[in-house]
Amino acid sequence: MADEKKSKQRHRVMVLASMYPVVALMLILVACVELCDAATVVDVYRLIQYDISGVPFGSRFSSLNHHAASLSFQRGADLSRSVLILPLRELDIGFVQDYISQKQSLGGLLILLPQTFRPGNVGGGSQSSENDGFRNLLAQLEKLLVHGNIPFPVYFAFENEETDAMLADVKKNDALGQQATATTGGYKLVISVSEPRKIASPTITNIQGWLPGSRADGDSNQLPTIAVVASYDTFGAAPALSVGSDSNGSGVVSLLEVARLFSILYSNPKTRGRYNLLFALTSGGPYNYEGTQKWLKSLDQRMRESIDYAICLNSVGSWDNELLIHVSKPPDNAYIKQIFEGFSNVAEDLGFQVALKHKKINISNSRVAWEHEQFSRLRVTAATLSELSTPPELLENTGSLSDTRQLVNEDAIIKGVKLVAESLAKHIYGHQGKDIKIFADDSSLAVNPFYVRSWLDLLSQTPRVAPFLSKNDPLIMALKKELEEYTAEVSVQHESLDGSFTFYDSTKASLNIYQVASVTFDLLLLLVLGSYLIVLFSFLVITTRGLDDLISLFRRPPSRKVKMA
Amino acid sequence: MTLFHFFNCAILTFGPHAVYYSATPLSEYDTLGTSVKAAVVYLATALVKLVCLATFLQVSETEVFDPYQEALKAMIGFIDVAGLYYALAQLTHRNISQNHKFQAVGLGWAFADSVLHRLAPLWVGARGLEFTWDYVLQGLEANANLVFTISLAALGSLMWLRKNKPKSLIPIIYTCAVIIATMPSITSYLKRVMGWHFPKIVGFELVTSLVMAFISCQLFILCQRPSL
Predict the structure, then answer these.
(1) Which stretches are transmembrane (chain B) (predicted)?
(2) Closest CA to A428 of A262, A254, A264, A256
(3) Taking CB atoms and an 8 Å limit, are B128 and A525 in contact across chains?
(4) Is A478 helix (H, G, I), strand (E, B) or coil?
(5) B163 to chain A, minimum CA–CA distance in Å?
(6) Closest Cα in chain A to B1
(7) Nearest C-alpha neighbor of A69 from the set A61, A57, A59, A77
(8) Which residues of chain B neighbour A554 with C-beta distances below 8 Å?
(9) Pairwise CA distance, residues B118 & B106, whole Å
(10) Taking the C-alpha atoms of B71, B73, B74 and B75 in order, what is their torsion angle to the nearest 10 degrees?
């Protein structure tokens, strides 16, 4: 008997021992709670995060895992563990400003933009007054967010049916006073990305195209050069959405079209002018035109001295009647007078006006408001052609969220191209004051509206923030290829962005929206199920064994000691 | 929280089987072996059904109710009945009364069915953050399925194991058995043609299962009388 018991015990112990690894494995498996696919996944775009000389700006965090809340929350509620969903349509700038300036803690901010601001969205010219209102609001919001230091993640998303339904639900719950937390259910917004890291040595890429003029036989002097320059990169609140159609997509498109027209002219030796043409697509525009400065410094000194003048194009896509020529040399300078007269004569013929604006350069101030100032600092005569009348502030008018394709008018660009091309041609071929149209419509040298439109559409769908463009980005390759077709020599220059600007990655993410049930619900369900199983048990016992058996289950068995005795 | 939900749905899906086993005299007579054998037979039947379905059925992309496909599916469904017959009649069981034999076989059959069809979706789906009612409804469906299977096993034992039955009851027995056996086709008809949603279908299944259980219980009692 004792032996049997002992062997049984040993057997039992061995069975138990062998179960331990299995149990451990089961526990590990159980602990890996996978986040299975959410019912709703939305593309979201993060607010930019950057430092200027070590001072942080923008949103400093990227990952998000909180409950959703809307504007209808009760005053005084704690939102530090909630994500506030703000549709642009109901945005109150003052509220956001208060929140940021008072440094109140918030789990996160999700701004819902109307579909019309989506980069690929071309249609929808109607309801423009409503859209204008949104544009202004968006511009104000962007300025606030870009220049502030925000200690929570900020994301932009586009409205769609699912977000609308979720927002309506969240508003209803908030109005009832049941704010979503772990115990009351609701919606949970999860963005799981790694912490944003600094972009090590961001590069800016300048692309230049050189179209040589015809040299007369026996003339050994260097031909003079005219330069046409436009900066192609952008900067905005959401780098993944900064397509900058007007600033400066319009400038790039104008430059390409002018290059195309002059390449036709210069391809025939008889019509080749006595000027070289230099086309430059520069980068680093928003950062005080750093790319332009580096490009100029890299040019051969003789080449630089041979530049007669340079025309910089900046935002020429949404003007009606007047373009502005900004200069830094005083207007009574002979060169400036000549240039301005040429432009204004052509403009008169074409039916609009140009005005001259002078802004002195302050050498002690490092802020470079216009691209031509970089030329002027190196003693090259230059002017900027733009629709803007006041010089933009740092990081403004550089391709914001509201700068979409709909803002740009193709006709404005075409008029601008005609202006530049005719004025350059007058200067090159020397028909000052004569009424000759070289690039007339319906001629072989007409401005091609389809070309303008297709490049404008392409640029309006490509975000172009310089630190996020790699050296061989498809856009840069495309621009290079395009210039190669129209110019004789193309060279690409890679430089690194100066130390005062630092950028952080993680610009795009996927937002998972989960509809979660509260813990109380689960407890309730457990209670219900428990009682159901107990009722089932009793029912079965009663029907198959009889009521007595059920009662006997609960009665203590009569004491064994009494029986044995 | 999500594991909690998984636990809840698991006890809803598999709890009743355990409760049934422990509450009825099945546990007293230790009929676990019968149930296990029935589960194994179910596995084999499921395999055969799968092979037949894969061979003969065309996969349609849309949720269109094709009568021929459904008829084919129903015929393949009768393989289920054949499997049940094998488990009831052909397998040798320990000496247990007929009363308990069909219950044990039905229980093992239903348990294997639940595990095979519902455990994997439960494990993968119910542990996520997102909350849906699907898994609770699936658990209720498992309960209805248990009742159906036990009723079918009861009718099956009446059909194949009992030799002397009152003549008038035989057609009723066979009709009920056919209805229960074609339940899958009926539910798919409801889902596709009538466009019923899952909760409605589960409700319908629960009600029908209770009705069928009642009818088969009555039939069983009626058939028992002559042998007394």
Answers:
(1) 39-59, 71-92, 104-124, 144-161, 168-189, 201-223
(2) A262
(3) no
(4) helix
(5) 25
(6) A519
(7) A77
(8) none
(9) 17
(10) 90
Question: How far is it, in rounded angstroms, from Cα A224 to Cα A90?
Answer: 57
Asked if ipTM goes beyond 0.90, one says no
Predicted TM-score (pTM) of the model is 0.77
Give the closest-approach CA distance of B18 to chain A in angstroms: 10
CA closest to A534 among chain B residues: B19
Q: Tally the domains of chain B.
A: 1
Q: What's the first-to-final CA gap in chain B, in angstroms?
A: 55
With beta carbons less than 8 A apart as the criterion, state whether A339 and A329 touch. no
- Residues in B closer than 8 angstroms to A545, CB to CB, are 24-25
CA of B27 vs chain A CAs: smallest distance (Å): 11
A contacts of B21 (beta carbons < 8 Å)? none
For B153-209, write each residue's pLDDT tens digit: 888 888 777 666 677 778 888 888 888 888 887 888 888 777 778 888 888 889 998
CB B37 within 8 Å of CB B87: yes
Q: How far is residue A85's CA from residue A70's CA, in Å, rounded to a whole number?
A: 5
For residue B120, the chain A residues in CB contact (below 8 A) are none
Instruction: For residue B24, list chain A residues with Cβ-Cβ distance below 8 A.
Output: 540-541, 544-545
Which distant-in-sequence residues (6+ apart) come within 8 Å of B202 by Cβ? B137, B140, B141, B144
Contact of A483 with A279, CB cutoff 8 Å:
yes
Do the Cβ atoms of A540 and B20 come within 8 Å?
Answer: yes
Answer for the pair B121, B104: CB distance below 8 angstroms, yes or no.
no
Give the domain extent around B86.
1-224
Range with lowest mean pLDDT among A57-61, A516-520, B13-17: A516-520
Instruction: Concatenate the DSSP letters of all residues of A244-275 into one string.
Output: -IIIIIHHHHHHHHHHHHHHHHHHSGGG--SS
Residue type at position A362: N
- Check CB contact under 8 Å for B23 and A182: no
A350: helix, strand or coil: helix
Per DSSP, helices labelled H in B115-169 are 120-125, 134-160
Shortest distance between the Cα of A39 and any Cα of chain B, in A, equals: 7
